[in-house]
Amino acid sequence: MEERRLSDRILFALELAIDQEDVMIADLLGQALELTLTRFGGPQAVERRHVDAEVLQAFQQLYELRRRRAANTS
Question: Of 28, 50, 58, 60, which residue is most buried, by most CB within 10 angstroms?
């Protein structure tokens, strides 16, 4: 794993938790990923980051995992 940003490492862990269908851990990692992606550096900072397709896909997969789990517990 050569990524050096915290968000990259959290994304990797989130994808693993989704693959393992661990909803509780995936939810926590999803929250952590959101926090790392929404940090901003003060009043003079200019946001230049964009949300990667890989991140959007992970959030979509997390949504689908939650939906499947909710359907199974109903």
Answer: 58
